[in-house]
Amino acid sequence: xxxxxxxxLLALVLFATEWYPIDVTAILIMVLLMVLEPWTQITPREGxxxxxxxxxxxxxxxxxxxxxxxxxxxxxxxxxxxxxxxxFDRRKQLxxxxxxxxxxxxxxxxxxxxAILVPVxxxxxxxxxxxxxxxLMPLSFASMLGGTLTLIGTSTNILASDxxxxxxxxxxxxxxxxxxxxxxxxxxxxxxxxGAVYLMTVGVRLLPERVPADEDLVEEYVLQEYLAxxxxxxxxxxxxKTVGEVxxxxxxxxxxxxxxxxxxxxxxxxxxxxxxxxxxxxxxxNRDTLERIMDAEGLTFAGGPKADAEFYxxxxxxxxxxxxxxxGSFLVGETIASSTFRRRYNANVLAFRTRxxxxxxxxxxxxxxxGDTLLVQAPPDSLTRLVQNEDFIVAxxxxxxxxxxxxxxxxxxxxxxxxxxxxxxxxxxxxxxxxGVVMMIxxxxxxxxxxxxxxxxxxIFLLAGVIPLGIALQQTGAAAVLGDGVASTAxxxxxxxxxxxxxxxxxxxTSVISNNASVVLMIPVAxxxxxxxxxxxxxxxxxxxxxxxxxxxxxVGYQTNLFVYGPGGYKFSDFLRVGAPLQLLLSVVTVLxxxxxxxxxx
Length: 602
Description:
The protein folds into 3 domains: 1-213 and 404-602, no CATH class; 225-304, 2-Layer Sandwich (Alpha-Beta Plaits), CATH 3.30.70.1450; 319-394, Regulator of K+ conductance, C-terminal domain (Alpha-Beta Plaits), CATH 3.30.70. Helix content is 56%, strand content 8%. It has 602 residues and is an alpha+beta fold.
């Protein structure tokens, strides 16, 4: 037990600090459990059992199904109709954001739903003269609330269902079983409704306008002091030399974005471009470095950008966009320099937003993390490639994106079948989901080569890696020890009070580590606690599941929060200010709802 507790402590530290990506941490934990088999009692077969778990396979299939839905463009169509309905009315904008996102997240994995809707909502905000900050956090929160509506709303629900079924098989007296498709929908509807009312009333008042509605990206990132055009005079010593020779030194801290010669513009690659008299160089650097280079080389300052339209006056010019880095992107763990991002996409990174901090200078060697936002200057053809690449979420909608709209009826029918068959107990959810994947290929909604790019492999490896940790908790008796410890609170708390403690503990844990890891750690302990105090184990498992699916208090608690962190211009404290009261409110609503529908005592 001590060895398992030590591994859990290591896991918590690594998940919270993000020293390694969460999927790498999960695999490390899995390996440690197998290597330390004499103490952890996890055999190699049990160690890799997560890869064959119904939960892992179901989540994999649901990610593919969600991708198929996305490629038809149906979510974008819903979003565009939502924008047309909302117009300039802020209340309608917020109501439409919550009202569309929640129900859709109930039947499609909520992470890709937010990835799709970020650009839709950002554009809706700007066109409707509303700060994106007022809509993007509610978008993320609504997706989490919607994820509580059905079994397939989030990967957390699917994993919790699988763990409950395993514990129920080992301890039949607990009465635990796999969740039905709509088993907790009645509670989910109440939670969603209460959360929506909060966001529409209290939440919108607590949300600051971090990004003014009429502010362009140059102003938002305060780039006026970092972007400048300089002209090469006739007597400059730079004439005849290449851009790389005179300005290519990384220690100099100057990035040449463009060279303009007699109206003709040259972008990447510029290093070997020879400098001529009267050339204009568009530079990104800080004001002190700019002044030094101008004094040393006699350059003439020709001004700096004041707005996107002035910076890029003609349609063929590069445009400014925010690019959010989702999980699974090739950029995660890389730096801007090491990733060759500029060469791949002929795009310049002008600023870098990471965990709420904006870096405008010398950011090429900062390691990129999930949720980081890049302010990118890219020509239209490169922008199209960025939009179509699942390694990025471009926070702006573009008409050039093509969807398989003719496949919408097939996609909707397949999803309906995937939901209905398990709900009617015809076939298990894992069989239904895999059958749906096959039908997506047969009907042409997805192409065979898109199957593998549709899967967020880091999520799959995370699930496979943490599942053995839950097994170790049970087999070594560690879960029972923790359960007995928590059960001791029953001497001064009623059973419903202990249930509330579990909800709060899971919510706090999920705020700093992966929601899937929280479920793996907390459900065995919750089941043991319920057994010790003679309570309804299903009620305790459900409390943990709901708490893990509603991580509102920090941007790192849930992927969707990271997706809106940069485009919303939020600070870390904004999530605590808006999310903590919501988490506390829902802890009471959820616990009372569980007690009403399922009872706390056996």
